[in-house]
Design brief:
The chain contains three helices and no strands. It is mainly α and 101 residues long. The longest helix is centred in the first third of the chain and has 38 residues.
Amino acid sequence: MKSSTSEAVERLKVARDLHDTLAQEIAALGFTCDEAIALEPIGASRSSLLEIRSKLSLLSTTLRDEIALLRDEERSFVEMLDGFVREVNGTSGISITNTAA
């Protein structure tokens, strides 16, 4: 019982930390990208900014979903982390390695 309680507490802490750090930084990058898009005339640079913004939005959604899963005790932490790593690696162009497995 103690190990599952401590895992649940740790999962909530990780979810809170991800929300308060990484999720906020991604949101800030998105807002900065929105500003750059608004200022950039139509052309190749603006198209690149729109692509970056789209990837940031997808990453933000993925992260938010994974934070919700952290709060759900149905999956183990390692299973959840594996899923998150696969999702990010497959959709964002960012490469993450999971050494917890």
